[in-house]
Amino acid sequence: MPPGTAPRSPARPALAGTLGRRALWPAAAGLLLAAVDAYAVVTLLPQMMAATGVPVDQPQAATPIVTGFLVGYVVAMPLLGTYSDHRGRAPAYAVAMGVFLLGSTLTALSGSLAWLVAGRVLQGLGGGALVPLTLALAADLSAPGTRGPLVGTISALQEAGSAVGPLYGAALAAALGGWRGVFWLNLPLGGMAVAGLWLGRRSGTSSGAAHPPPATAGIDWPGAILLGGGLGLAVLALYPDAPESRPLNGAALPLGLTALAALLAFAWHQVRRLSPLIPARLLRARAFWGGLSTNLLAGGALMVALVDVPVLARGAFGLSTLDSGLLLSRLLVGLPVGAALGGWLTGRLGKRWTAGAGLVLSATAFALMSSWGTHEPTAPASPASAELAACGAGFGLLIAPLTVAVLDLARSEEHGLASGLVVLSRTTGMVLALAALTTFGLAEFQRLLRTHPCVLPPAGDLSARLRAFEGCTRAALLQEYREVFLVAAGLCAAGALVALLTLPGGGRGGLGRSRR
Which of 125, 82, 79, 84 shows the shortest CA–CA distance to 102? Predict the structure, then answer.
C-alpha cells in the first residue's frame, strides 16, 4: 500500500444499485435549489436594497448581504460535514436544509437590512453545508475508482445553478410579484427535497447506502468551530466593504488578528488531540495536499473571470449591464458541461490528467483573453465567447478529479469532512483572489494613468475632452485586465503543475493494475 493511503473499505457491490441511489437525487435537487438561490440575488439585489431602505446609488451599503451569505457558507462546511460523519447524512442534510429554509423565511419577511443580512447568513450556513453533504453521499454510494461520473454529475448540477440563477431570480420575481416570492418558494421545494431523501433512505436501508459506518470517536466540535470560525472571520476581513476606496474591510486588522488566533488555536488543538478533526493519515498524503492546493489556485483564477469579465465588458467594451451578464454567461454555461465531462474522464484518464487538462485549457483561454482589444466582438459566435466557454469548461473539468482524489483517501466515516475541505479550499481561493484583485486593481489603475498621461484637446470643446478622457480610462482599464488575465493564466499553470506532480494517475485500467 502506498504511503499515506487510507486502508480501503471493502468495495460495496453497487450498493444495491437503484435502491441506494434513490436518496441521492432528491439531495442533489436540494443542492441545485441552494445554488440557484445563491446566484438569484445577482438580479434581485436592487429590489432587496430598495425594500430595506438601502439607496440604490450606494451599493457598498449592501455588501453585508453578500458577505453574510459567504461567511455562513464557509463556517458551515467543517461543522455539518463532520456532524454527518457521526450522525448520518440524512439527519445532517435535514438540519442543513432546515437552516436554509429558516434563512429563506427571514429573508422573505425582512423589513430592514439587519434582518435581511441575518436571513442571508442562515441561508449561507444551510446552503453551504448541502454541498459537502451531497458529495459525501455520492461517495458513500460508490466505490473508490468509480466515483468520477457520480461526483461529476452532482458538481454539474451545482454549477448549473450559477448559470441559471440570475435568470431564475428575475423570472420568478416577475411571475410572483416581487423578490420575496422567490424565497417563499424555497420552502415547499426544500421540503420536497428532504422528504424525497428520507423516503429514499428508507428504501435503501437494506443496502446501507445512506448510512456511512459510524465514526468511533466523538465529534470534535472545538476543532470544527475553530476552523470554521477562523475562516469565516478571515472572509469578513478580506471582503472589501467599500471597494471603490479601500481593498479590505474597514475592520480588517481586528478581524484578521482574531481569525489568525482562531486558526492557530485550531492548529494547536489538532496537534494535541488524539483523534483530531483532520486525521494525521490525510495530512501525510501527498494527494490530499495536492488536491486542496490545486483547488485553492483554481478558485483564485475562477474569481478573476467572475469579477473581471463583467467589469471589463462595461468599462472597456461599453456594454450594458445585461449584455455584460450575457457575456459572462458563456463561461458559466461551460462550467456544468466541463464538470459532467470531467467526471466521465476521471474514470478513464485518471485524476492527474483530467485535472491537468482542465487547468491547461483554462490557462490557454486566459492567455488568449489577455489580447482582447477595446473593440473586441462579443457576439455568441465570436472568439471572445469561445474563449470564455473554454475557460469555464476547463474549470469544470477539474472539479470531479480533485474531489475524488481527496475522497478516495478518506474512509467512509470521513467523507463529510473530506468533501467539506475540498469545497472550502476552492472558496478560500476565491476570497483571497477577490481581496487581491481589489488591492491590485486600485493600485494598478492609478499607476497606468500616471505613467500614460492623458492628452486632452485644447480647452473649449468639453465634449471632445470628455471623450478623450473616457478613451484614456478605457485604455488603462483594458491594460490592467490584460495583466490580470495573464496572472490568472499563471495561477492555472501552477495548479496544473501541482496536479500533475501530486495526484494519482491512470483510469480504470490503472486502478486495476495497482490492486493486482
Answer: 125
The dihedrals phi and psi of 178, each to the nearest 5 degrees, come to 145, 170
**How far apart are alpha carbons 349 and 352 in whole angstroms?**
8
By the 8 A CB rule, do 71 and 235 touch?
Answer: yes
- Look at residue 60 in the predicted model and tell me its pLDDT: 60
Element (H, E) at 244: none
Q: What does the DSSP assignment read for 185-196?
A: THHHHHHHHHHH
Closest CA to 408 of 21, 5, 85: 5
**Which pLDDT score, from 0 to 100, does residue 312 have?**
78
Query: CA 210, 215, 221, 225: dihedral to nearest 10 degrees?
Result: -60
- What end-to-end distance do the CA atoms of the chain give, in Å? 11
pLDDT in tens, 314-331: 777 777 777 877 888 899
Q: Is the pLDDT of residue 512 over 60?
A: no
* pLDDT (tens digit per residue) in 472-502: 666 666 777 788 899 999 999 999 999 999 9
Q: Is 145 left (phi over 0), alpha (psi -120 to 50) or beta?
A: left
- Quick one: CA dihedral 182, 188, 191, 195, positive or negative? negative
CA distances, 476 to each of 256, 367, 471 (Å): 32, 19, 9
- Of how many residues is the chain composed? 516
Cell numbers linked to 210: 445512506
> Confidence class of residue 15 from pLDDT cuts 50, 70 and 90?
very low
Q: What angle do CA 48, 52, 57 make, to 5 degrees?
A: 70
CA distance 56 to 48: 10
80: cell is 455539518
Cell of 315: 468599462
Task: Determine whether 118 is exposed, middle or buried from the number of CB atoms within 10 Å of its CB (0-12, 13-18, 19+).
Answer: middle
pTM given for the model: 0.81
Are 498 and 287 spatial neighbours (Cβ–Cβ below 8 Å)? no
- H or E segment at 320? none
Question: C-alpha distances in angstroms, 392 versus 304, 329, 335, 366?
Answer: 12, 10, 5, 10
